[in-house]
Amino acid sequence: MESILSPDPAHPGHRPGAATAVKLVGVSRFYEVGEGRVYALRDIDLEVDEGEFVVVLGPSGSGKTTLLNMIGALDVASEGRIIVAERDVTGASRRELSRLRRDTVAFVFQTFNLFPTLTAVENVQCAVEISGRRRGARRVAEDALASVGLSGRGLHYPSELSGGEQQRVAIARALATGNPILVADEPTGDLDFRTGVQVLEVLQQLARAGHTVIVVTHNREISRVADRVIELSSGRIVSDGPPLEGRADVADLRW
Amino acid sequence: MVIAIGTGVYSALSGTATWRRVSNDASFAATGMYDLRVRGTEGLYADRGAMLTVLESLPDPSLIEHAEERLIFDTQVDASTSAKSIRVPGRVIGLDVSEGGPQLTSVAVADDQGRALVAADDGQPVALVERNFADFYGLQADGTVRLGGGATLDLVGIGMGPEYFFITTEDGGFFAQANFAALFTSLTTAQEIADRPGAVNDLVLRVRDEVDIEALRADVQAAFDGSSLGLGVTVMTASDEDAYRVLYEDIKNDRKFWNVFAGLILAGAAFAAFNLSSRMVDSQRREVGIGLALGASRVQLAWRPLLVGIEIGIAGVLLGIAVGSLAVALLRPVYLEMLPLPIWRTGFQWQPFLRGAGLGFVIPVVATAWPVWRSTRMTPVDAVATVHRSTNTGFAHILRVLRWPRSAFRRMPVGNVLRAPRRTLLTALGIGAAVATLVAVLGMLDSFRSTMARNDTIVLKDHPDRVVVGLDSITTDDGTLVASVAAATSVGTTSPVLQLAGHLTVSGAKGFDVVIEALDLAGGVWTPISGVAPTEPGIVISAPAADELGVDVGDEVELTHPVRDGIGFTTTTSSLRVIGIHPSPFRFPVYFDRSLLSSFGATGLANELYVVPAAGSSTDDVAAELFDLPGVNSVVAAATSSKIVRDSVNEFTGILRVLEGFLLVLALLIAYNATSINADERRRERATLFAFGLPVHRVMVLEIVECALYGLLGTLIGLGVGRAIHHWVMTRLLQSTMPDMRLDIVIDTGTYVSAIVVGIVAVAVAPLLTLGRLLRMDVPGTLRVVE
Ligand SMILES: Nc1ncnc2c1ncn2[C@@H]1O[C@H](COP(=O)(O)OP(=O)(O)OP(=O)(O)O)[C@@H](O)[C@H]1O
Ligand SMILES: [Mg+2]
Fold it and tell me: CB of A42 closer than 6 A to ligand 1?
């Protein structure tokens, strides 16, 4: 236990003194399909510190979503061990997994998954309430919406919002939970440049404020805002380090 | 399964009419119901063989296949057991038991109820007691009965004779089994009891199949009238026999009545099936849309869901046979008990089943075809769209202004209910259909119960131990018979009553038959209502009667009634004022004060006495003491008459009980189906909640709340519709099928509670049944699906 939890000083982007937020050791995830196995992830070793802004890059089907689900304790590894916020996810009970998701991880899904029968602000408020803060949930929700530039659309239903707006609501929902680890699956995929930039800025600010932010994309340009880029291919990490094209400020991005 | 219950119960219920017809036919045939009966005038007899001889003078005696002489006379019967005293008027039917007879009126005896009469019984003091009477008093197939003249007969069995399958009184009153004991014995025995050796007074005939029965009847009548026998005979056909006529006529009313319920259940099930399968297809709408987008033809896309519909239909129909058989098995004993026929043919009825099954098959097919057709009509874009945009925001505006609940989390179920009104309505209507049928059926039971209770309070008021003493003939209320009854030690107070048959109407209306009782309206042992000024000439009629004639206190009605004319009676019609309306649920009782008897030319006459036992004496004491008093025809406790009425509605309550069980299952099934479809549709949101760390039990709570809301809505709809149906059944349907009785239109709290339990509680806990599915849910997989 000790050895696994102790930080590995060698990993890219490590800042001295920062605690480990996420650690994966020899993690594989495979599906039994017919006779054979399909590996979504294969033998992953990974360590992310608190406050890191990590981008996971890779072609479609490379296992990005699967990796996020592992980190977010939504999915369990077929092999290997996963430690999230100093808790061992491997072999955790349903209850423990639930609590972990409620208190430490916040999701932004590739497919939004907003509650269609709640308004934007209620969607956010709902997540706040689930995380245990009943009082002032509405305020927190409104603030979160404002921070993604949607203060005027709080009373709209998801069906009345564009895809990009829905995605921003989903981000507001995730950050309003106040959970330390935020995992976002293609959060800018549906957004135009200007709003995409807004979203990235919000995520970057979150990281600066001490949140661990893990963002999946297949857009190499976006990866330039990150401290660290992990590239996946066919379920394996093929590279891990600072952005290859060099770090860039959100404002300098072109896409 | 829903369809199965619908079609199964439908077919069983509508098959009961066929049961009854087939069973009647078989029973009458098996026990040798006569085709023609030659009935001698009371008190006149012929020598044995003389009646048969008359037949030979017929134009064509060969038309008659078989004939048998009988001796029938009325007497008093004391069938008291050690447990209770039973003293009623009765009848001895002497049958020709020689040569394996009788062939006609061959009294049937059930296996465990003793034995039939045999040739060796001729002249022996043995008899069969009639089954309706025996059942009413719970008599066994042994024991003895004492007859009016002092003769004693040993009972050897409980028998069913065709003229006594259904017991009516002389004036057509139903449910007379408590007060009429028929005893079947050998001809010789009957002659000995009557002290008329060799006498007969009755002849029954079986004729050849092709005979014109009316023509033959006339011939037979003429033959007897022209004979020197001097019997003064009446020739009857089977349909002149009350038992025969009533049993067949009743089927018609019965069928009408139960068809409504069968239809109701089928409709409820059909609606639910339609609802469920159309939603199932609806959820495949997107696939159809995608197919369209890919350029598949409509037919290609439509056949798959249609196939599912057809499969559901076939499965439902097959299961329906099982459910139908179960319903048949449950209904059978109810009918057997209600109508003790010797033969009951309660086979599974294929004809109504096929009718129900046809519907059961068509419904799911149509239910799937319609939405399939709709979705293939759509532009692919609409079909693929995740959320119906703008066109279907539901009650969004309500939600926006709705301040409660403040918590967004708690708002979720409310939002789900309000934002998808179509789905909500469909779910609620499905639940509503089940609840409505339940309320209608349980409400019927409540109404019967309440009406019976009301009747009891009326009949048993003032003196619950009241005894009704019937007299042999009409006498004067100051005569010796009345005096000797009053003088009996067990008798406390008595009040004389004259009971007559009549007909009540208002000018222009059809009217109906009534039973008139002239009693002491002011101070008698029993009065229908209090507070009527008896000095005022007029009659008291029952509420249903007043209602039907549209009259109120003070209005004039026309009463056709007998008037004393010398030593007999003739009929006349008088215009009389209604001076009171009594609360009986029955239409037929009419009362007036004895002071009015003078205008009937019947001053001081009585044929019945209301008796209150003396202090320390019981109803049984009165019966025992008065039985041997010459001139007393029957002694029946008033409480017995309430039991008769109660027994008479047992048929309905028995069948309704069977329905109740099926309905509960049906309602629960519909509720569960609606819920589980709902759960399916909400899969994604559930997965999202899991992702946010909401534990399973809280997700469950959300679902339960949501379902409870659907249930609430469905229950409200169901209660409304159910009450309307109940009201319709009570006022319209029953008026035409049971015109003599007016039931209370009540629905008990218990019924509301059951409706709420089924509609809300059962629906709300239905999500618990999906718990397994929830636990096994592939959360990442569900979240991943791009809709
Ligand atoms: N339930 C499953 N059964 C079988 N294979 C699966 C299942 N879920 C995912 N996979 C496979 O795992 C691999 C990784 O999937 P994943 O969703 O992680 O890819 P991704 O990198 O997120 O792709 P994209 O960029 O398209 O979202 C894919 O090849 C996919 O087919
Ligand atoms: Mg993905």
Answer: no
